[in-house]
Amino acid sequence: MNTESDLAEALQHAVIVDSDHLGRLRSRLAASAATQGLLDVAYRTIDTPVGSLLLAATDTGLVRVAYANEDHDRVLQTLSDRISPRILHHPSRLDTTARELDEYFAGRRRTFSVPLDWQLSAGFRAAVLQHLTDIEYGHTASYATVARLAGRPKAFRAVGTACATNPLPVVVPCHRVVKSDGSMGGYLGGPDAKATLLELEAAA
Amino acid sequence: MSRKPPFEAIVETHGATVLRVCRAVVGAAEADDAWSETFLSAMKAYPALPDDANVEAWLVTIAHRRAIDAGRAQSRRAVPTDSIADRADRPDRSEPDPDLMAALEGLPDKQRLSVTYHYLAGLPYAEIASILGGSADAARRAAADGIAALRRSTVVATSQTTDRTTR
Fold first, then answer.
1. Looking at CA atoms only, how far is residue B134 from chain A in angstroms?
2. CATH of domain B1-76
């Protein structure tokens, strides 16, 4: 019984770490890191009618909204690779975004006011995404129309790609882009999520 | 392209171990601050850390250095242990074991740190040698001496810990 490994185990027991206590330390760490300018990306998740959404923000603004089917762990790894590995769970930087999304899903908000960080999209895709906010709440536009708006009328396939890789779904409304024949078309959050958003906006 | 995990994953994976180490190195009263300082420092340096680095050894090294800088690692002294009679009243096994902790805190620095870094942080003796200076053999001997001393001073406490886990 009184072997080295027993003693090692007893040592682990001697300094057992309470998970609530550690949770408080982690919150405090995130707040200090933010204050000291060390927190390059803050994130949190929120529960919505289209499932859990990951929200991530830099100092510039909201940089990523991700559906659960995109795999939040993978999304965080991509943020680490592309922006900075200095990423912590820090909900308070995203309080306003979370509140605006809550209001949107409750049918009480039509546009978002939070600043956006566009660094994850570039070139024509970025141009396409920035035109999506021209499509008003409750309306839809075809891929061809959006291609025209973005200045490349023949590039409707590229518009599809831009929508499929939208780093800021819901807030940048790629769900309002549908096929020319009126059918819904694909969606990075899955067809059910697209239908839910379009129904929500049609009903409000 | 770098494949460095988000820092949150580092805190998730190593947060508990680093807190144990901080408690053993600077004592419970200062452990929370030492933990925060360690992770803030680590976060500052994290982007430049080589992808294949031993993250736990790196964190322990930072914790160790900060403790040294603050003059804390050397100044730890034994605190009185509870009497044997008190031990029976100890709440439950999720509570830290003050006797063993006190015995650990009472060890000479080199032994205490070698035991902590090997048995609490799981570092190999070669890593411990690079943190503490000296050779891996010296670190191994210090840890063995420390364990022997702990065993002598905590035979009762250890058997009680075992009893509690099976209750």
1. 23
2. 1.10.1740.10
